């Protein structure tokens, strides 16, 4: 019999158990404290009686003692109250188990037992979106990293792998579809209009990969036959009205399944693969075994509502989650410090996949731009950490650009060092050796060493040291000896907790160009700088050489060179490596703008000439040209300066934009007209044309061309796709023309019932270069369509706003106050999403005294607030330290 405990125990907010004691000081978890689990759980059966207001969960765990010890069984819980506890079929008395904080502790005598618990939770009141929660009429779960303990008592750590049997029962009318991991093995109808389904997952998995969905969903169904002939039923589950928007995701899924077979030799391992789209989700998507759950923004796409960038993101995230089936699920992580083992590797895999589907050059530019926008600032600020962190308060805070994107760069360096064949030998060995295991980053590196035949002793520093290395590269030419010498010097900056750094192995792809012949002087070399200093000689260099270095961004570092503006302009026109070509243009722009900020004026001539040459070069594809002619972001320019002056950067950048626009008006018009298409088509060429068109429009507007607003308004009105429509809206939103308000209102009216598109309406305004953007954001915060309940909406407004450097850093500090007010309102509901938006305030050291003081004051106000979550507390306190 299941004994119901005193009802009062489970009243109140079930998700935050009320205690009279003050909350315990948060404990720091250290990587080196890892210990094997005391108890293993080879099998678990879960029984869900689903109801949004009160869901009952019965869990039956077969537990086995792991090693010789007499420690009790400790089951993690988070806000759970045990209604009953049974061991081997016998109900335990209240003194035979106890709670330690949120964990349930049961002393056990033998080597194996069957332990049963029963709890009740209220998914509809779960605003944290961790555990079992309600979203748009659905019930769904999110367990990574530590959400499973909000559903049932369990050793909620990734090195406890179990086979799951899940029985779920719900009202049939409200929840006709019942999904969980693995394959459905039985289903049936129950009493009172309820029905049930049973799902079994034969692959042992950690609790963070558990998932369940119940709701009224429709499926886009398809099939895939794997390379060994296994037939897989594919389904993408959405609200019925969204079905037409799932074609692109389905195509991407099938392409990624085939790609992983070809490139990594990995095939799918079950008869079903399900994807569910949900509207309220803290991250992008989740790789639960055979039941991926997605933020709907990474599934739904059609030309009317999704931009080309959205299409690319959908394909990239679908591939990413699918690839996790091997890099993450079949081989999982031993502990959360190893997170980059699955995330860095999987991001690298999805980057390779996307590069293979379209323009590899443009994809690389986008990836590096993203790294510089999100990871470099993190690596240079108070929250810097290695890709394998050493400690944390709250693991959710470590789903970072460092773990993901720098982690991917580290894998990419291995790929560069080994070459594709040996890299594949290493990855094959890794998957073979560790299939079914919970592995470490060290296991991965060792497999690469053994399979690839390379010594990675020093390379391991990339897992240990935080901070973006800086490389000084000086090329000297001895004309008489016809010899060029490249001198290299690296420094790894100090980061919190890591005052002393060692030099790391940096694989730098290098080539020299002849400034007279305009040709490459010999082939490309891979120079590995693995000490503080190094040099490389090039013989037979009979003309003045120009240095092309870190081609393809082969190492995630900052390179400083002694190249002149003329050298950079030369490379921007002649380098055969498209990334290096883009990079040379960026560096020329940076040098010009940084010079302008410090001296108050600059010669725009060289940039204008280089941009002109790129724009009119018929050999370049439009997608590349569009990227190459864009100025670096204000934030990236700020990163180049000791003290960021947002207003000066904005002014210098706008002045250059204006001059570029004005000096090249006819070229921009030509590009604009030439990139016009008749009907929407989703192809690399058409995407490139759309991209260049809006970039050209932006320059015409920057030049103050009298017809720019009319052109933009016409593009806005005539567009048969969201890329052109939002592009035009973005250009209008920066200006003051009457068309601006008309277009914003029309956009709002057309899409007010589509939350994903309404997000664009919010972010377009928050990104505006206008002087009154802070006021606009303050008003949008109070707009009836703004809600703290939906993470996408929060990020659409505040993520965009804090990326708008000049607006966010408004000298009066109103931007800071606005963000801090929002964070304090959001934290009690959804600490994870709140914590992710803290870092912009944490960058106070990089700004002048006045701004720094205002930013610190907001951080201090936040940290002084009683009842703050661990998530926000960790981010804010580290930012102040
Ligand atoms: N593991 C997910 C991914 O990268 C991200 C995620 C983390 C989602 C935590 C939800 C919660 O694919
Ligand atoms: Zn991932």
Automatic annotation (TrEMBL):
Region feature Disordered, mapped onto this chain: 1-26
Coiled coil spans: none
InterPro entries attached to this UniProt entry: Aminopeptidase_N-like_N, Aminopeptidase_N-like_N_sf, PepN_Ig-like_sf, Peptidase_M1, Peptidase_M1_dom, Peptidase_M1_pepN, Peptidase_M1_pepN_C, Peptidase_M1_pepN_C_sf
EC number: 3.4.11.2
Domain called Aminopeptidase N-like N-terminal: residue spans: 102-209
Family the entry assigns: Belongs to the peptidase M1 family.
Name listed for the protein in its UniProt record: Aminopeptidase N
Organism from which the protein derives: Sphingomonas sanxanigenens DSM 19645 = NX02
